[in-house]
Structure formats: C-alpha cells, structure tokens
C-alpha cells in the first residue's frame, strides 16, 4: 500500500504537454502525480505534428514528435508513473473530500484516491465526420482526402496537383502556402471570413490562389482524374475539379467522456458551447478538486508553450490550495 497521503496525490488525465508539465511541477513541489493516458504513447497532439516547431524556446529544429520524446524522457527520469492504454470509468467524492478514481487498464480494473484531478485531455482535429453529410462523400476516393495534421505530410507530392483546402485559419493557410511552394494549384474555402495570419493570406492572394469566403462544400462526385466538387459561394455555385482535398477545419475538446465518468457525488463541470472546460484564472474548474490545463480549456491560444505554462500553473495552484483551500 502506498504510504503517502491521498490528499497529496494528483490524478492527471492526459499526457500531452500540459499533463507532462503539470506532472513535472507537481513532483518538484513535493506532490505525488500519476498520469493517466488513453493511448499507447504520450505527447498528445504533438505526436501528429510532423513539421518542425520553431515556436518553443530552446528547441530549434524539432518536430512535435521529437519534442514529445524529450518531454516524456524528462518525466520518466523522475520516476513519475504514466499508466498507458488506461481510462477513468468512475469518479466519486469521498467523505474526507478526496476523490476516488476507478480506472480501466490493460491489467484490469484498478483505482486510487487523490486530492485533485487535472484534466489535460487536449483536443482532436475534425476529420471525416465533418464531411459525412456532404452528398457524394461516401462514393468518392478516400485516398484523395487528408484531414488535420495529416495534410502536412508528403507535401512535395502535390507538385502540379489541384488542391482544395477547406478551412480559414492558420493551419489552412500554412498548408496552402506550403502546397503552393511545392507547385500545387490551390483553392481555399471557408464558411466565414478568413482569420489566418496576414502574412499567409497576403501571400496566397499575391500567388493568385482562388480564395472563397462565406462558402461551403455542397457536393462531391468522383471524377475521372480526381474529385468534382460543388462550392456554394455568395456569387453562386461553382464546380471545381481537384486531385486532392484537405480538411483543416479546426479542433474540438476531448471532454465528452466526463459526463459518463462522474458519479452522483460530483456535479458536472461547466463547459462552454463548444465543450471546452471553463476555468478561473488559477486553472480551477467549477467543482472543488478539479483543475484543467492546456488546449482542453484554452480555445483562444492553443499551443505547446501555453499548455506547458498552464500545466505548471495548475500544479502550483493545487499546492497552494492544499495549504489554503478555496
């Protein structure tokens, strides 16, 4: 039996940058963190960041996968446990205020008590489910479609190809920029106004890319040499034949599992209309003992560096709340 008090134990759901950072800080603050990871490896969204990430200070020229390996190695060197292929199935609040967590693991059902839970489950990119309602989608060659971060792999093969990108943010326009540089003929479609970095949008306008705001994909059909798309635009419907379709339509938070996990003793945590957890300035959720960090609660600035920062902040706040409960 673990002799350390449950009140000092922290259950961290998710081992992306926010969860790993929270675990590191909790360990250094004298707490007892345990990371619960649904997948077989840590890193979260970094595992599908195939480009070099030049936005993390001191880590030049590293892909998301390389960053994840470094972060995990740091945590593992400290002996912080990471339970892989595991998920919470139930949480209850005990009479002493601690939280009882039940897990489904590769070794069966297990559990432990903790003084706090940090939700750092991140987000997932929108994929095929976004296009399922588009007429003709099921009849088209799925090999001509890419979704989310996978749109950034093998960009060099797009030379001479006709590419339709659905999305209006930074990811969509960065993808357009790279594809154009590789020799692709690019069309970008967004449901509302474009909201990417100005340098990307200016570059695409200058390059002569076809840009359609307030537009949507209305129909898909197989074509002899690709996909025949119908775009509904303010100027009317237009047909565009393409070789490839890239969907870069944003992310959604991994919070839907919470409603099935919380027992009767724990009211639901407050979420916004998109499902993101709502936290105060100290990373606290709407119920005592629950905290959140990273993209799962930060829709305005999702990034590796903000996740690292918020994970550290959550750990520090838990340590403070133990000495002066709110």
CATH topology of the largest domain: FAD/NAD(P)-binding domain
H-E string = EHEHEEEEEEEEHEHEEEEEEHEH
Class per helix and strand makeup: alpha/beta
Lateral arrangement of strands in the main beta sheet: 3-2-1-7-18
Straight-line N-to-C gap = 30 Å
CATH architecture of the largest domain: 3-Layer(bba) Sandwich
Organism: Candidatus Dactylopiibacterium carminicum
GO molecular function: oxidoreductase activity
Keywords: Flavoprotein, Oxidoreductase
Protein name: NAD(P)/FAD-dependent oxidoreductase
Concise overview:
This protein is an alpha/beta fold. The chain has 2 domains: 9-122 and 254-323, FAD/NAD(P)-binding domain (3-Layer(bba) Sandwich); 126-249, FAD/NAD(P)-binding domain (3-Layer(bba) Sandwich), CATH 3.50.50.60. The chain has helices at residues 17-28, 64-77, 170-181, 198-207, 258-261, 304-323; strands at 9-13, 32-36, 82-83, 87-93, 99-105, 108-114, 116-119, 123-125, 145-147, 162-166, 185-189, 210-212, 216-223, 226-233, 236-242, 244-247, 251-253, 290-292.
